[in-house]
Amino acid sequence: MKNRNLLVVLWILVAGILFQQPMYAQFWNDSATHKPRLLLGLPVVDVPYWGMGAQTNANRGCVNPNCPVHAGNYVVSLWENPSMLQSLMYTQSVISGVAFGVQTGVNALIPTNTALGRLGNSLLAEFAMFGFNLVGTNQPLGSGWLHEEYHRAAMATRFISSNNPFSRFGTPGGSVSGIQDQYLRDFKAQDPAGFVRMLASGVEAQQLLARSLQVENVIHDTRLPITLYSVYEQIYSALYVTSNALGSADSVVRVVNSRERTVLERDFTGPDFTGWAYHISSPKQPYDSLGTHPTGVGINRYITTERIAAPDLSYFQRVAPLMWLNLASPLTLGINTISLDFLSPGLRMNAAMRAYMTSFGTDVGGEVFVITPEVRGIVGVHNYQNRNSSFWALEAEMFDIPLPIFSAPTTWTARIIAGTQPLNQEHRTLEGQFFGALRVRGNYPISDWFSVFVQSEAKTAGWIAGNPFLGANISLVSGVQVRSPR
Ligand SMILES: [Zn+2]
Predict the structure, then answer these.
(1) From ligand 1's centre to the CA of 197, what distance in Å?
(2) d(Cα 82, Cα 43) in Å, to the nearest integer?
(3) In angstroms, rounded to a whole number, what is the distance separating the alpha carbons of residues 355 and 361?
(4) Phi, psi of 106 (to 5 degrees)
(5) Mapping DSSP to helix (H, G, I), strand (E, B) and coil, where does residue 430 land?
(6) Would you list the domain boundaries of the chain?
(7) 263 C-alpha to center of ligand 1: Å?
């Protein structure tokens, strides 16, 4: 607790210093900072995941886990079983589109030619987007919907079909349900690390969404009013994990357990992170050892803190507060870039800490954004920690490098990660194994606004946020991007 207080004090000091930065001063003097830019992505094809999504879609309501797949399943699965990349881009595009509209509308209402006007303009746009988040989170394509889709995409790698409660408008709340115990039993037995990742992936989605929106503003200069929206997602994520660790969901579990009399109406896990803490600590323990549900029907899925062994709970309580580190960035204060003209003309930078719950433990790291008149990039470091050891990796990403192919004006974005992760994603091992990933994306413009993109990501066995595969994998994605010209 003391450490957290210290962090807050440090952060206030750093924030105070950052407020003096020239870029922030420029915000107050430059009405052009409010001119937003539209950036939308629609990924149509994502293979090999698409085949898994279609098979999972075919398995819905089917007793046999390998039901025949029809062409219709491929089409419907684009909405009902999207990949992690697809659901993230769908949600991000909706938020970006709405934020673009909100900022354009607010610009018409409140002129930005005075300092007071710029302040009022920013506050109105930011709070409008915050309100949109509160109303829209549990609607189709909202961040709550995205959270559940990430759980479901992890299940789909084992062809387990399920329901997203937020795939219809106006659902008051709900569960990822419709799953027989036998599928969860087989999942844990055959792929314990994948099972743990399924539990952590909902919050992973919300943290990635916040990061992706921030990257739009920093790297692509979209100037969208998404600061409060992103900060809300990060606070929600940190609160979810820490409140689970403190047992705040335990009383809810008791009430819900007394109500849910059938297996199919139950959530796949209950509180995500008490489940995470229990299963990450007991990878070899069969799912059936959870015992019989209090109603006498099915397995007792939902984990309360009393069911977690003391050393495992204390590990969970030690790592859960790390999720608050996601707020440690000037981005939390709405500072998108900091001008460092005195070092090099046109140089702007920013930095952020990033923390995720993973299949083996945690990924805590940081990233630095670098923007020059010629280059835009991110360099980062990952400290992958399991229960007993630390593993490191470095990451670098460069954006929109012009490199024509056969004289076509193609631009390229490339990301590389290289380092080590725990052997076989194990929670207690001291041994590491090489981990590497390379993602390359080419954008071919077909007009001033539209481009077609093709992206390929190749990875060794290991965990990456936003990629459903823990094993070695090569994926190919293609779609359309909309970007308004500056
Ligand atoms: Zn969840």
Answers:
(1) 11
(2) 10
(3) 11
(4) -65, -35
(5) coil
(6) 2-483
(7) 18
Neighbours of ion ligand 1 (CB under 5 A): 202, 272
How many Å lie between the centroid of ligand 1 and the Cα of residue 268?
9
Please state whether beta strands 338-339 and 39-47 pair in parallel, antiparallel, or not at all (unpaired).
Answer: unpaired
Sign, CA dihedral 436-355-362-250, equals negative
Ligand 1 midpoint to CA 151 (Å): 7
287 CA from centroid of ligand 1 (Å): 19
d(CA 36, CA 224): 6
Ligand 1 centroid, distance to 148 Cα (angstroms): 6
From first to last of its 486 residues, the chain has per-residue pLDDT tens of 344 555 555 555 555 544 444 444 445 455 567 899 999 999 999 999 999 999 999 998 776 767 899 999 999 999 999 999 999 999 999 999 999 999 999 999 999 988 888 889 999 999 999 999 989 999 999 999 999 999 999 999 999 999 999 998 988 777 899 999 999 999 999 999 999 999 999 999 999 999 999 999 999 999 999 999 999 999 999 999 999 999 999 999 999 999 999 999 999 999 999 999 999 999 999 999 999 999 999 999 999 999 999 999 999 999 999 999 999 999 999 999 999 999 999 999 999 999 999 999 999 999 999 999 999 999 999 999 999 999 999 999 999 999 988 888 899 999 999 999 999 999 999 999 999 999 999 999 999 999 999 999 999 999 999 999 999 999 999 999 999 987
